[in-house]
Amino acid sequence: MQLSVTFRHMEPSEALKNYVQERTNRLTRYIDKPLEAQVALTVNKFRQIVDVVINANGIRIAGQEAHDDMYAAIDLVMDKIERQVKKYREKIRHHKPAAAGREIRWRRDIYGQESFEDDREPVVVKTENYFVKPMSIDEAAMQMDLSQQDFLVFNNALTQMVNVLYRRKDGNYGLIVPQSS
């Protein structure tokens, strides 16, 4: 994580910088990509102001808080940022990902049981479309943790092949990798 702490109208303090570093490191449990954070600590006549801007995962999260005590202002703004990150994480969990990079579209057809019993041609009763996003296996596992789905179809960023990650009954994950004959 890259952290930039700026002191305005005050003497630089290693203790404040370490405290900001500690509070910012807590965000890494919610965001797995490298973080880039800019923190500005400002002292006015009667109050202490903390401005925070965090760039991670292609998102920008900003917050500002003022208080009589600098440590309290840091706590308030980092709590605000943490709530925003949690909200973003929930949004990822409940929404389909936006189209990014090179994606492949897949379709799954579900056939009715009666079409197999009567020796008739199978009839499609439901079709689902999937957007296959390029990601690593670790990212796919994180996405599975965030979602309640039983499987995830993704384009493996290392091999450029479509893989399927699925949740096993024992709680672990399985990976399906296609092999050419």
From TrEMBL:
Q: What biological-process terms (Gene Ontology) are attached?
A: negative regulation of translational elongation
The protein's UniProt keywords, in alphabetical order, are: Cytoplasm, Translation regulation
Q: Where in the cell is it found?
A: Cytoplasm
What is the protein's species of origin?
Desulfomonile tiedjei
Functional summary from the UniProt entry: Required for dimerization of active 70S ribosomes into 100S ribosomes in stationary phase; 100S ribosomes are translationally inactive and sometimes present during exponential growth.
The organism's lineage?
Answer: Bacteria, Pseudomonadati, Thermodesulfobacteriota, Desulfomonilia, Desulfomonilales
Q: Which domain of life is it from?
A: Bacteria
Which InterPro entries does the entry mention?
A: HPF/YfiA_ribosome-assoc, HPF_long/plastid, RHF-like, RHF/RaiA, Ribosom_S30AE_C, Ribosom_S30AE_C_sf
Q: What is this protein called?
A: Ribosome hibernation promoting factor
Q: Corresponding gene?
A: raiA
